[in-house]
């Protein structure tokens, strides 16, 4: 099994009202050094089988057609190692 991570963020030229709201709240909580906040979304997909170029291409197609809106969002896809369950103690 392989885990693919799709990170989706608004394009830089797109207004991000959620990010601006967080940016406005941070100083009230004592975090006054933050200059900008952009809020996005993250998807983790566990796919049967070992990671392959074809599966990576399929996940990219999922990101482009369903998980993001390419008109206003950028996305990136990566493969992450799955932690093994249990230990040899």
TrEMBL record:
<dbReference type="Pfam" id="PF02700">
    <property type="entry name" value="PurS"/>
</dbReference>
<comment type="function">
    <text>Part of the phosphoribosylformylglycinamidine synthase complex involved in the purines biosynthetic pathway. Catalyzes the ATP-dependent conversion of formylglycinamide ribonucleotide (FGAR) and glutamine to yield formylglycinamidine ribonucleotide (FGAM) and glutamate. The FGAM synthase complex is composed of three subunits. PurQ produces an ammonia molecule by converting glutamine to glutamate. PurL transfers the ammonia molecule to FGAR to form FGAM in an ATP-dependent manner.</text>
</comment>
<dbReference type="InterPro" id="IPR036604">
    <property type="entry name" value="PurS-like_sf"/>
</dbReference>
<dbReference type="GO" id="GO:0005524">
    <property type="term" value="F:ATP binding"/>
</dbReference>
<protein>
    <recommendedName>
        <fullName>Phosphoribosylformylglycinamidine synthase subunit PurS</fullName>
        <ecNumber>6.3.5.3</ecNumber>
    </recommendedName>
</protein>
<comment type="subunit">
    <text>Part of the FGAM synthase complex composed of 1 PurL, 1 PurQ and 2 PurS subunits.</text>
</comment>
<dbReference type="GO" id="GO:0004642">
    <property type="term" value="F:phosphoribosylformylglycinamidine synthase activity"/>
</dbReference>
<keyword id="KW-0547">Nucleotide-binding</keyword>
<comment type="pathway">
    <text>Purine metabolism; IMP biosynthesis via de novo pathway; 5-amino-1-(5-phospho-D-ribosyl)imidazole from N(2)-formyl-N(1)-(5-phospho-D-ribosyl)glycinamide: step 1/2.</text>
</comment>
<keyword id="KW-0658">Purine biosynthesis</keyword>
<keyword id="KW-0963">Cytoplasm</keyword>
<dbReference type="InterPro" id="IPR003850">
    <property type="entry name" value="PurS"/>
</dbReference>
<keyword id="KW-0067">ATP-binding</keyword>
<keyword id="KW-0436">Ligase</keyword>
<dbReference type="GO" id="GO:0006189">
    <property type="term" value="P:'de novo' IMP biosynthetic process"/>
</dbReference>
<dbReference type="GO" id="GO:0005737">
    <property type="term" value="C:cytoplasm"/>
</dbReference>
<comment type="similarity">
    <text>Belongs to the PurS family.</text>
</comment>
């Amino acid at each position: 099994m392989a885990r693919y991570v799709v990170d989706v963020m608004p394009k830089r030229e797109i207004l991000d009202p959620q990010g601006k709201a967080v940016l406005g709240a941070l100083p009230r909580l004592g975090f006054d050094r933050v200059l900008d906040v952009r809020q996005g979304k993250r998807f983790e997909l566990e796919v049967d089988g070992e990671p392959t170029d074809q599966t990576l291409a399929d996940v990219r197609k999922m990101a482009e057609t369903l998980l993001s809106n390419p008109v206003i969002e950028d996305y990136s896809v990566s493969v992450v190692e799955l932690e093994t369950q249990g230990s040899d103690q």
